[in-house]
Amino acid sequence: MPVENSSSSGSRQAKQKRKSHSLSIRRTNSTEQDRSGLQRELLEGQDSKLPRSLRTNLLDLFNQIEREFENLYLENIELRREIESLNDRLTADGQAGEGADLAKGALKTKASHSTSQLSQKLKTTYKASTSKIVSSFKATTSRAVCQLVKEYVGHRDGIWDLSATRAQPVVLGTASADHTAMLWSIETGKCLLKYLGHQGSVNSIKFHPSEQMALTASGDQTAHIWRYMVQLPTPQPVADTTTPCEDDVDSSDKDDADADAEGPNDCPSVRVPTTTLRSHQGVVIAADWLVGGKQVVTASWDRAANLYDVETSELVHSLTGHDQELTHCCTHPNQRLVVTSSRDTTFRLWDFRDPSIHSVNVFQGHTDTVTSAVFTVGDNVVSGSDDRTVKVWDLKNMRSPIATIRTDSAVNRISVSVNQKIIALPHDNRQVRLFDMSGVRLARLPRSNRQGHRRMVCCSAWCEDNTACNLFTCGFDRQAIGWNINIPALLQEK
Fold first, then answer.
1. What angle do helix axes 6-45 and 52-92 make, rounded to 10 degrees?
2. What does the CA dihedral 491, 428, 191, 202 come to, rounded to 10 degrees?
3. Which residues on adjacent β-strands are paired with residue 224?
4. Any idea what the Cα angle at residue 123 is, between residues 119 and 127, rounded to 5°?
5. Are strands 191-195 and 269-270 parallel, antiparallel or unpaired?
6. Could you write out the DSSP letters of every residue in 303-356?
7. Angle in degrees, CA 97, 100, 103, rounded to 5
8. Is the preceding peptide bond at 51 cis, omega within 30 degrees of 0?
9. What is the Cα–Cα distance from 385 to 407, expressed in whole angstroms?
10. For the chain, what is the total number of helices (H) and then of strands (E)?
11. Which residues of 79-109 are buried (b: 16+ CB within 10 A; e: fewer)?
């Protein structure tokens, strides 16, 4: 009976092992394909609001990431085998322990370097994949709908608030922590007038609906009403500073030379108010005119909001009920309604339409400080909070919000455009984002080393009647910025 020699036996075993390994590879590939197909079927079968092409793209990208991790894991195993093999070889050759340690350390260094390269490659691949995912959510055609037009520089400290006049001439007003308020030419960026009547930080500025009068609130526990007269300079040609809305270049935290510049010294100033409103026991954080301009409302850190008569400067009503400091107040443009927001996570709606009844409604829709709540021309209230959400409410049914916007940073004093109802969100993280009333994100204003805010953005204000700048923002980088938002193009991309 023929006997199989050892060499032929070893050859047969090697062939069987290769054949088994080949079958294993085929089985593994088949399993991965089946699993990928199964995952695709499951994903496509799920009730998702994402388009089918986007879901397929997401699945492919995540499969690529998984394969990269698998490759890294297999190469790590191979490197460990090489280390063990080298250690066995050194031991068999009788190498000294020190030499073995040195060789082992050298190989570990090599393995670590290789693993680091693989890890870096994986990170690059993952970053590129996620960038594709993010870019796929918004079309890249919205490249010129947001333009930085003018920067208003001159305050010596952060700017808390800003607004544009409702009557002619149309100018921009800013309220700053440097104890001053300034009026600016929107087209030229020149300071037209400086108000020096407050002894503390100026926290708010609002203009009378028909007369050349301004209302400012201050940390000196007062609110001032003062008259102004300005003459607009000859407008200069506006330079083209088109910048993409989705500019992802991060900005530097350093202060530019213009941010430290001295305030304008050649503009006229007003030092004495027409009317001083005194009755608060704490910082007056905000103030606004009621419809008609005959009464004003103020909000204070003493947890109360006060209603004053402008002509007599007398206190008409004290609106109490908030448990903590107030942060903002706003009046309805057409009705005698007031909304106040507070650090107690609530905002309150005060109704003065019936002179004999002054009703109040409390709304608890946030989990942190409500930084602002504003009316729209219609029957909506929009509230923003430090809980990183903005909520849209219907005045006819305030039980729950009709839309919720979730962001990645605390939201400060928001504003809503009158005609198109676009919400401008200023953030602590220096971003300014635009949303519609249904919560759909429309754009993000550009921010880079050359343009945009370099500190927290405190407030936004729309001025749709102005052809040069229809949106203004201000922040703690001591500047206000005028933007031109191409609203038709913005809504067309929606």
1. 150
2. 120
3. 216, 276
4. 170
5. parallel
6. SEEEEEETTT--EEEEEE--SS-EEEEEE-SSSSEEEEEETTS-EEEEEEEETT
7. 155
8. no
9. 10
10. 4, 29
11. beeebeeeeeebeeeeeeeeebeebeeeeee
Instruction: Identify the DSSP state of 438.
Output: T
Q: Computed from CA positions of residues 87, 92, 95, 96, in that sequence, does the dihedral angle turn out positive or negative? A: positive
Tokens (6 digits) for 53: 């092409």
Pick from 243, 239, 203, 248: nearest CA to 223: 203
Single-letter amino acid code for the residue at 342:
S
pLDDT in tens, the chain (494 residues): 444 455 555 555 555 555 554 444 444 455 555 555 655 555 555 567 778 888 888 888 888 888 888 888 898 898 888 888 888 887 777 654 444 444 445 445 545 555 556 556 555 555 444 444 444 444 334 446 899 999 999 999 999 999 999 888 999 999 999 999 999 999 999 999 999 999 999 999 999 999 999 999 999 999 999 999 998 887 555 555 444 454 444 444 444 434 444 445 678 999 999 999 999 999 999 999 999 999 999 999 999 999 999 999 999 999 999 999 999 999 999 999 999 999 999 999 999 988 777 789 999 999 999 999 999 988 899 999 999 999 999 988 888 999 999 999 999 999 999 888 999 999 999 999 999 999 999 999 988 767 899 999 999 999 988 888 999 999 999 999 999 999 888 888 76
Beta-strand relationship, 471-475 and 457-462: antiparallel
Q: Which residues does residue 286 pair with via DSSP β-bridges, in sequence order?
A: 299
Residue 444: CB atoms within 10 A of its CB come to: 20
d(CA 454, CA 475): 8
What is the Cα–Cα distance from 89 to 139, expressed in whole angstroms? 59
Token pair 């060499």: residue: 7
Are the C-beta atoms of residues 463 and 485 closer than 8 Å to each other?
no
Cβ atoms of residues 75 and 118 within 8 Å: yes
